[in-house]
Amino acid sequence: MAKIAIVSDESSRARAVELEAMQTYVAQAPAHGHTAEILDVHDVARLPEFDAVFLRLDTNVLGLPFAVSRSAWKLGLRVVDDPRSMVTCMNKAHVQQLLEHHGVPTPDTVLLTKEGRESLDPEALFAELGTPIVVKAPSGAFSSAVEKAHDGKELEALVRRFSIQSDVILLQRYTPSAFDWRVGVLCGDPLYAARYHIPKGGWRIHDTPAGATKKEWAKIEPVQLGQVPYAVMQAALTACRVIGGGLYGVDLKQREDGSVVVIEVNDNPNIDPGGELPKGSPIFGQILDRIAREGPKA
User: Fold this and answer.
1) Strands 179-186 and 216-217, how do they pair?
2) Residue 210: its pLDDT value, please?
3) Of the four, 36, 217, 259, 279, which is 20 to 30 A from 123 by CA?
4) Model confidence at 144: pLDDT above 80
5) What percent of the chain has pLDDT over 70?
6) Domain spanning 3-86 has what CATH number?
7) Could you tell me the end-to-end alpha-carbon distance of the chain, in angstroms, rounded to an integer?
8) Does pLDDT of 131 surpass 90?
9) Which CATH code is given to the segment(s) 179-294?
10) For helices 230-243 and 92-101, what crossing angle results, to 10°?
11) Where along the chain do its domains lie?
12) Are 86 and 61 in contact (CB under 8 A)?
């Protein structure tokens, strides 16, 4: 039996659905022979009381969550998200290089360095990547720092803007789709799958619908694992093997010809009751059990 800390931030106003998820983890832990407790991120001194740690908050490597992950790692606890995964996933440029090196299909991509920005040739880039070009800052999340450039002027403006955040900027071929695939993977095995239906008139999972003034989230449609196209599932699993053995949410797009590209590999993915999983799904308890038995550890 393991004692598992589900680390949250009680001083912030977490979404109600996140609180419901954490309460579900706690309720289902005993069915697998474990106990779970929601632990405030500031109570790091209590980590030695636990056998495993499950972080359910922003895993920015510059924040307190990363310090908690490292502390748990040094104590020899099983920890998700582990510090190695956090460092890797926070840098989209590094993830892109890893995926390319291991033959994981991704959109055609150019990593624009400082030297490349100084000799920027928009005409050549549009010829290589098509129109529009997707411009990304490596550390963005939830569609933040992801924009489209339709011409040279827009591209130059976005490059200047994102260069303030990073020395490297990702330029990618645009892959249009009505929805994104999301596959959740833990310890190398698929947990859940969903389609994120992009707001009408938008192109990102968090975007402004046509005629609206405020951004909306994509509508989540859970999909049984057996109904996920083979190419989507294999690309997701291969991508996660490249990153590590923790918990990841892989975003993918399937082209009209059936081919698949991996858009991102995210640590700390959303797993919401009534969203990615049905309310009360036994998978919540299975996640804790898998972390307790096989989660990453130093």
Assistant:
1) unpaired
2) 73
3) 259
4) no
5) 96
6) 3.40.50.20
7) 20
8) yes
9) 3.30.470.20
10) 110
11) 3-86, 108-173, 179-294
12) yes
